[in-house]
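User: what does the whole thing look like in 3D?
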Amino acid sequence: PQMDPQIGGSSKRFMDFPYVSAPHRDLMVELVSTMESRLESSLLPCTLPQDVQYYHNHTGTAHACLHIRSGLKPSLIDFMLGSWLHCELPAGALNITSLSTYLSPLTDAPNFLMELIQSSPTSLVFILDLPPRKDLVLHPDYLQTFYEATQLNRHRQLLEKIPEVRPYSSSSLYIRFLVSPTAILVRIETGGTERMEEIVRHHVSSIAKEVLGTWLDWCACGERDMGEADRDYVAKRDRMIKQKTIEIDLGSSLPRLFGEEVAARVLAAIQEVFN
Amino acid sequence: PQMDPQIGGSSKRFMDFPYVSAPHRDLMVELVSTMESRLESSLLPCTLPQDVQYYHNHTGTAHACLHIRSGLKPSLIDFMLGSWLHCELPAGALNITSLSTYLSPLTDAPNFLMELIQSSPTSLVFILDLPPRKDLVLHPDYLQTFYEATQLNRHRQLLEKIPEVRPYSSSSLYIRFLVSPTAILVRIETGGTERMEEIVRHHVSSIAKEVLGTWLDWCACGERDMGEADRDYVAKRDRMIKQKTIEIDLGSSLPRLFGEEVAARVLAAIQEVFN
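Assistant: Here's the predicted 3D structure for the full assembly of 550 residues, as structure tokens:
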């Protein structure tokens, strides 16, 4: 049934990543496939409405796919969320792809978070982190287990050696505090598109795959010994993060890019999964 | 009584800051004076042993002063700690000056922290922050009160516009997580000493004085409404920070620069104030 009028004749699919460069697309497909195949037994199918799995604005200048799979209950997985977004803006095309997975309160191990924000073919913001789920100041043992023993810092150090890479600072103080001390938050600016594709293929991809491997092996691998109070604390902190992340990130950008009506529909669908 | 043989004939005093440039010294003297005069009614005199207030190594290549004043009990102040350190190293002279004040569990407002690490006349690491005393992820209202409403981020943005300023990342993941999202953590590298003195006089000094003013007016200004559980939490978190900071920072650098014996004496005196 063609209830939803499609711009250009057909709906777009999540795994197509239709607007980004080949190495960028290859990376996203590999990360999502690895994540889904490793966590398959804990994941429910994506039950988002069709007009949230793919949505666009009235004029057809902005398109996006959203792919959310909730975790089975009980399992280690709260949900995984993948997305892409393409938007023609006066300054050029904006392309954002993201993949994140939140764990359940059966563990306090870090979540997984990756986002690639391409504001032009020669400018890319690369965000990759295992955001902590406890206050690291009060729990240095947690810092040791998940960040020091896993040597996550070496990826950051590798990237810093590439001349086109500069630190990136989120404009939101909350987001800035949410990430771990080993977070990769960089802006890559190249002289040409070929060099950008080379950096994505050789550096961004290998680092993202390694960090996902670390997360799957060390974080998404089993329950952690926690008391009832600990589980309540982690659940409360997770809820706060989900609420604030929507408010700061999507809550401000979606209405701007897709209009109030589309944004409200998409945000309501996300809220439903988050609650 | 001349029990402690002094290199060069006389002991050195904290407020002299004898080894740093004039603008660096002027800044430290002004910050310490402002801090002490504003908090005077809550501060006890410095009771450190003479050989901890000033200490040096056997060969006379490393000198340091330490100035710690505990807060009256009950008061908002846990302690204030000022220090300078001078060390002749093969690569050149290392000069560190610092000023920090920890608040008591009568408030959960942020502490004050400043450190200037000069590894050569043309290289300076500038650390300035009001480190939070709660988990900001769980308490966005705290972030709003102390970091957003105070517009602390603008100092960081001002500094980033100076071409000689680059971000600085502590090698300790724990220290990196301890600071707030508005923390100034930069390395300044200049072509000559005159330009460095200019940057210290015009930018570093004005920012440091403004942040100290913000801290005195917004943080060190009164009790905060907290339950018993909150006070216990803050006290526990503060203890952890003090313990880890000594372990990571002084515990590794002092033995290297001053020898085991001097380091043990100084660390024991600091531990006594911290407990």
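In plain terms: The helical segments of chain B are 22-39, 50-53, 140-148, 153-160, 173-178, 193-218, 228-258, 260-274. Residues 1-9 of chain B have pLDDT under 50 and may be disordered.
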